[in-house]
Amino acid sequence: MNQPKVNLHPKVGDEVRKTTCYMCACRCGIDVHVKTDGGRDRVAYIEGNRDHPVNRGVLCAKGSAGIMQHNAPARLRAPLKRVGERGEGKFEEISWDEAYEIAASWLRPIRETDPSKLAFFTGRDQSQSFTSWWAQAFGTPNYAAHGGFCSVNMAAGGIYTMGGAFWEFGQPDWERTKLFILFGVAEDHDSNPIKMGIGRMKGHGGRVVGVNPVRSGYNAVADDWFGVTPGTDGLLILSLVHCLLKAGKIDLDYLAQFTDAPVLIDARPGPTEGLPLKDDDGHALVWCRKENRPRCYDAEDVEPALNGAWEQDGVTHRTVFHHLAHKYLTPEYAPEAVAERTGIPAGRIHALAAAIARVAFDEAIELQQEWTDFRGRVHKTMTGRPVSFHAMRGISAHANGFQTCRALHLLQILIGSVETPGGFRFKPPYPKPATAHPKPHCKVTPGAPLDGPHLGFVHGPDDLCLREDGSPARIDKAFTWENPMSAHGMMHMVISNAHAGDPYEIDTLLLYMANMAWNSSMNTSGTMKMLADKKPDGSYVIPHIIYSDAYSSETVAFADLVLPDTTYLERHDCISLLDRPICEAEAAADAIRWPVVEPDRDVKGFQTALIELGAKLGLPGFVTEDGSQKFADYADYMVNHERRPGVGPLMGWRGNGEETGRGAPNPAQLDRYIANGGYCVAHIPDAAQFYKPWNRAYQDWAVELGLYDKAAPYIFTLWCEPLRRFQLAAEGHGDRQPPDHLRARIKATMDPLPIWWDPTAAHGGDGKYTITALTQRPAAMYHSWGSQNAWLRQIHGRNPLYLPTNLWEAHGFTDDDWARVTSPHGEIVVPVAHMPALNANTVWTWNAIGKRKGAWALRDDAPETEKGFLLNHLIHELLPPKADGMRWSNSDPITGQAAWFDLKVAIEKVAPPADGRARPDTGRQASPVGEGPDDLRWEVT
Ligand code: SF4
Fold it and tell me: CB of 668 within 8 A of CB of 655?
């Protein structure tokens, strides 16, 4: 027989180079097969790194499509200087020397006179500890990354409540959890780890519950789906809290030992009312049932009582637990009272609460692992409550998102499932409470660095970033009375405020990896106009715009100067413990990227460009004593920069090459990372694996590794003291007072215990706009990046607006129909599609599929530009005017998180446009890189 000879194991490359994926935020390990072709290294194939702690060899479709990202026709080729008008996309290529000269000519004078004239904001930057350090050295208070318009409510809600949050800050105990409940999670972030985790827990019989208006992604594989009405997650969660309290299914011992539930709250009317009582050293007081008196919470033999009460001078101070039980046992939180509003029948809420209670208490687990707590008590075992939760942007991108995220943490803590076996576990460098983070700094001195880190956690009015006259110190108005606890800044307000000169005018806007002229802004058409707007004298309202991107995005067209970044396979990066590392609950871990292939264009990694520009400007830390450039490039910085003596960006192979965490810089460090597959892992000892905030073994290990300089145990804070401090100011107490127009809002929203309110009420609309409209980031792409990727475009070339069955039928839609969608702010005309697994009053679409003509090297008739669209045109960065002349941001009033998902719309069926194109038409930009070829393929031989 003549059998064909098939080579089942072709050699795909000459060499495997191991680095870190950047096709989304998960940072999986990848093996890049490289072939030398005509004297040049070329990427032949990408697969998962089987040893890597994040993905264990698993690679998603995006990850393998990295080869097309790396070879995309949309890659920028050299620095660009604008020669046309902003928005036109007309540039000339220039040298790096000329680019630095131009940038320095704008930046040098403002640094010497007023550094706050620079606003430096980064997007999906994975080097924030570096970019913020640069901005600090420059001296501007105006720095933040994209957290403010992404998920700051999730991060801040978690850190203020329990010293850590979901996503990269923690994970379920996948091996032991039996019930996993996801709130508002899209699958584009934390993709591989959650997919793998769900697979593992389903393998041992665990159940997955999805709470999400849209049954896509993880919700599609959930055993049970709750199609909650957007913005009501907090109400649903507090109803679950109500049910559990009523049934007595809460972990009393956990609450008494490890949380502030037994802490006494000051009941004296006046400036301290509602604050936790503390001793002279600032330690919270609990009621000790052993000695029948208030005592410090961390005293060795204290026995905290949840129901304690202290009679003092005619007032009774009661515990946090008393206050929360009193609050959430009221009928307003009963399932029957919230069913209609949340869209979830009362019986299903009761059933979910019962399932949580059954698994947490009837199926509790006990690990035979001895451990010692912060009071010095030895525990023979570890008790597990095998219910875990995960949440992300879906619940946080509402104006009530911070309190909703806190409500979810309250639920977790009440059942004792945080940092216990089977529950939610922190990943190093967490746990780390808000009090262990820096406070925000904003003191500007011409010609000198800022007085400290820009971002951080405020603990009361004294920490706000206000100028002496009380006006905002930052261009985005973060850390002001309008949004006091805006821990990640407010990137969505920067362009709007800079354009309005409110609170002041700026000179230069420096953006990195944030497509702010398109899908990363609310009010896209308005933002494009603001970026291109001119004063009567013909000069631009925002005088200078510098942008760094690897690709010819929409925002490139609005820049005066473009610094071309590399692709992720051509650069050095550190995924650092100083920043957003790749740790697991069982281990600390960090990683690098390195140039597995050299750029074939005149491009530089943005961080290296900042190092060179910083040296040219003479910024402290970037030059040596003789004024010469201190770091050759970003790789040099990664190895030799020390944030504290012995602690640098990378933890592995420090000192003589044998030290982990602490140690002097080691010139061979990057070689050791590369030899180890691009990452380093430091395992947490067995006795330190759980109860980390209170576990002496963990605290000691964290100090040894350099995560902290001394042990710092703490208790979870269900009662958020900073919130109460702002309320007290709004009630008239203290020297620093809010403006009168904000007093009522601060009092209403900044409750020290989680609350719920209708986040859409502030948008008005006279009852005309009743349907919630959501965007979801495509699982197959990472924000905009993917639009130029030939493989990924085949998955999402266009995006219809999905309607649930009742709206589909009520409007008489059929396949290939179109709709006009209106909001108080604008209208779009778009194709529609039917999706039954959707909340009955919600429509949605994918974000970042629609493209502007000329961008991303796409052809003018590409489906992305013809039928693709953005919902962003309907969302405004400001709330509708209130006739008070003020600009109210469309944000969470506590943290300033962009309230993307509070959008309400009206829908009507319209005839398909004659030209078959979605509206609005945003015009065309010229492409500095031309158009991609019709047929994008090549062979690496
Ligand atoms: S999950 Fe993200 S980081 Fe991991 S392979 Fe996929 S795209 Fe890359």
Answer: no
Which residue's CA lies nearest to atom 2 of ligand 1? 24
Q: Which fold has domain 163-428?
A: Dimethylsulfoxide Reductase; domain 2 (3.40.228)
Atom of ligand 1 nearest to the CA of 54: 4
Residues in Cβ contact with 939 at an 8 Å cutoff, skipping those fewer than 6 apart? none
From the options 3.30.505.10, 2.40.40.20, 3.30.70.1340, 3.40.50.720, give the CATH code of 761-910. Answer: 2.40.40.20
Pocket test for ligand 1, best of 50, 68, 192 (most atoms within 8 A of CB): 192
Is the shortest distance between the CB of 195 and ligand 1 below 6 Å? no
* Residue appearing with tokens 């690897």: 550
Q: What letter represents residue 202's amino acid?
A: K
**Residue linked to tokens 């390195």:** 594
Taking only the tens place, the pLDDT of each residue in 735-794 is 999 999 999 999 999 999 999 999 988 887 778 999 999 998 888 888 778 888 999 998
> What superfamily in CATH does domain 1-64 come from?
ADC-like domains (2.20.25.90)
Closest C-alpha to 456, from 895, 83, 107? 895
* Separation of CA 18 and ligand 1 centre (Å): 14
What pLDDT sits at residue 1?
59
Residue nearest to atom 4 of ligand 1 (CA): 28
Ligand 1 within 6 A of 275 CB? no
Ligand 1 centre to CA of 862 (Å) is 26
Determine the Cα angle at 758 with ends 753 and 764, to 5°.
Answer: 145
In angstroms, what is the span from residue 61 Cα to ligand 1's centroid?
8
Listed by start position, the domains of the chain span 1-64, 80-153+435-569, 163-428, 761-910
Query: How far, in Å, is the centroid of ligand 1 from the Cα of 941?
Result: 27
Q: Which H helix or E strand runs over 574?
A: strand 573-575
Q: Distance between CA atoms of 851 and 832, rounded to whole angstroms?
A: 18
Given the candidates 3.40.50.720, 3.50.7.10, 3.40.50.740, 3.60.110.10, the CATH classification of the domain at 80-153+435-569 is 3.40.50.740
User: What gap in Å lies between CA 721 and CA 460, rounded to an integer?
Assistant: 8
In the reported structure, the alpha carbon of residue 433 is separated from the centroid of ligand 1 by a whole-number distance in angstroms of 29
Work out the end-to-end distance of the chain between its first and last CA atoms, rounded to an integer number of angstroms: 32
Residue 62 Cβ inside 6 Å of ligand 1? The answer reads yes
Which of ligand 1's atoms lies nearest the C-alpha of 58?
5
If one counts every other C-beta atom within 10 angstroms of the C-beta of residue 268, the result is 15
Q: Is the pLDDT of residue 647 over 80?
A: yes
Determine the distance separating the centroid of ligand 1 and the alpha carbon of 871, expressed in angstroms: 26
* Ligand 1 close to Cβ of residue 192 (< 6 A): yes
> Could you tell me if the CB of 779 is within 6 A of ligand 1?
no
At 168, the pLDDT band (50, 70, 90 cuts) reads confident
